Amino acid sequence: MTPAELADAILLAVRDAVAANELPAEVVAAPLDIKVERPRQKEHGDYATSIALVISKTAGKPPRDVAVALQARLSTVAGIESVEIAGPGFLNIRLEAAAQGQLAKAIVTTGATYGTVDTLKGRVINLEFISANPTGPLHLGHARWAAVGDALGRVLSAAGAEVTREFYVNDVGVQMDRFGASMMAIARGEAVPEDGYHGAYIPELSAQIVAENPAIMELSGVDQLQAFRDAGYTLQLKQQQDVLSQFGTHFDVWFSETTLHNSGAVDAAIEKLREQGHVDDKDGAVWLRTTDFGDDKDRVMIKADGEKTYFAADAAYYLDKRERGFQQCIYMLGADHHGYVQRLRAIAACAGDDPDQSIDVLIGQLVKIVEDGKEMRLSKRAGNIITLEDLVEWVGVDAARYSLARSSADTPLTLDTKILTSRTTTNPVFTVQYAHARISSVLRNAVELKILGSGDIAAALEQAGEFDPSLLTHEREGDLLGALAEFPRVVASAAELSEPHRVARYLEELAGTYHRFYDACRVLPHGDEDVTDLVRARLHLCAATRVVVANGLALLGVSAPERM
RNA sequence: GCGCUCGUAGCUCAGCCGGAUAGAGCAACUGCCUUCUAAGCAGUAGGCCGCAGGUUCGAGUCCUGCCGAGCGCACCA
After folding, report:
1. How long is the CA A337 to C1' B66 vector, in angstroms?
2. Which CATH number characterizes residue A449's domain?
3. What are the pLDDT digits (tens) for A432-469?
4. What is the pLDDT of residue A494?
5. Smallest CA–C1' distance to B33, residue
6. Is A50 inside any structural domain?
7. Which of A213, A298, A344, A449 would you label with A327, given CA atoms 20 to 30 Å apart?
8. A511 to each of A112, A117, A134, A215, A437, how far by Cα in Å?
C-alpha cells in the first residue's frame, strides 16, 4: 500500500462517515486534500494524517470525535494493521508488513519509470536558463543554472510535463561590440579598451580568429570590428555549447536575440502591445505601461534615437514563446536580475495573460567560492573568473552537478575548493553513489552464488523463486520500504515547486536508510547456508532500492556507478 | 530612500507550500571490519530557528515592524 493509496482510503473513510451521518456533508463539499505524512517518531506509526484536525472546524466537532469516526472505518481496510488516535487528533496508521513489502517487487518490475508521475501531465512548459552573453566562458553562476535547470527539466518531464529547454543567446548590443573590439585590439597589438573584455580567453580567441582567417587583418574600421565580433561570437557560442554538452546539460532550442530583430518580431510585438492598449508615446520614445501591472516604472521599448531596447526584445521573446504554444514560461535568473521579475510579469499581463499562470521566475542566489578563507568574486568582465570548466576540472561532472543541485537555488551557496578538491567522503554525492555501488556489489555476489541469473535483474529475481513480501518485517526493512514509497511524491513536489534539490535531499536520506538496513540485515547467505525466502525477499528490496537510487540520480544528471 | 532575496548546530545546508520532542552531512570525541564495498554503522556533544509583536487548537513555516547580509532601482546590455 502506497501513501497515495492510503490517502484514497482515508478519503473513502471520510465520505463513508458523511454517508452514515457521523459527519456533516459540508466536510466533503469542497475537494479534500488528504495529507499523509511519515512521522519522525516511530511510535507514531508508519503514516500519520492530521485530517481530523483539518476538518474539525467544518465538521463542527472536536478533532478527536472526528478521528474516532475515521478510525473505526480505516481499521477495517485491507493492508492496514492498526489505527491509533494520538495527541489533539492525529491518526497514526500502521501497515501490515505484506502490504508494505509488496512495493519492493512492484518497483523492480516498474524499473526506470518508477517515480514518474502525471501531476503535470499535459502542461506545456518553456524552461529558459543560463541565457548568457556569448562574449566569454560560462562562470560559476551559470554552472548553478546548468545543474539546477537541467535537473528541473528532467523533474518536470518526469512529472508528465512537456518541456522545452531553451537558451536565449544575448547576441545583440554594445556588449557584443565591446567583445569584438577587445579581440580586434589584441590582434592589432593595441591595448584592450577600458570597457572591453580582459579575460585570458580574449587573446586566445583573437589568435584563433586570425589563424583561421588571416585576411581579417586586411579589413579596416567597422568591417574589421564586425568580422571579429561575428567570428568571436561563433567560436564562443560553440565553446559554451561544448562545455554544456560535456556537463550533460542539453538544450532543445538555442534562441538568438538577433533573429527577433531581423524577423521584425520586435516591431510586431510593439504593435501587438499597442493594440492591447498598454503602449504610450512620450518624450520621443515608445513606452510600455508596465506600471499598470505592478512594475514601479514604465519601460522604454524604443528609445528617442530609434534604437530598440533589450526590454523590447524581451517582450517580443515572450510573445514568441506564447505563439509557440507554451502555457508556462519558467525563467531562471541570477539574483542581480531580480529587478526583472515585475517587468516580465508585466509583459505577460500587457499581452493579456495571467502572470501567475504563465510566468514563473526562479532567482538564483550567488554562488561563492572560498579558497583559503578568501572569497573570490565573480565578475564576467574581470579576468579572474572561475568558469564552469574550472569547476568540472577540479571535481568532475558528478560532484559539480550534485553539489550545485542539492541546494535550493534561492539560498546563497558557498562552495569550498578544499572540500571539492579533496574528493573524499565530505561530498554527499559519494554517499549516494556509494549506496548504488554497494547494492550493485550485493547483486553481483548473488549472481556469483547462483542465487540470481545474470542479465535483467527483474527477470533474474522472477526466476529465483517466490517473493514473500510478508517476510520483510525488520524495522530497518520497514524504514527502507517506507522511504522507497516516498519517491513518487518527492518527484511530484519537486516538479510542482520547481525545486529539484528535493530529489537530492531525498536520495541522501534514502542512501542513509539503505546503509542502516545493510548494517542490520544480512542479505546473502553465509558459507553453505540455504537460500531462504528471506534472502530472496531482501534481494528484491536491494534491487528496488537500486532502481530508486539510479532513477533519482538520473533526474539530477548524475551517474550511478556499479563499482567505486 | 524604495524594492527583491536571504538570516536554522562551529561550517555547508535541509525542513515535504501551519502539525507531535527542529534534522542531515562535515568538523570533534567514543566504539564496531576472519562474513554481502568500513566511501559504512552505532553512540556522545553541539540550537533563544536574527530580534520583537500578531494570527490559532498549534508558527522555523503565515502577517507586521525592526536588525543584519547580498543584490537591484537607466531612453545600459
Report:
1. 27
2. 1.10.730.10
3. 999 999 999 999 999 999 999 988 999 999 999 999 99
4. 94
5. A519
6. yes
7. A298
8. 18, 22, 40, 60, 11
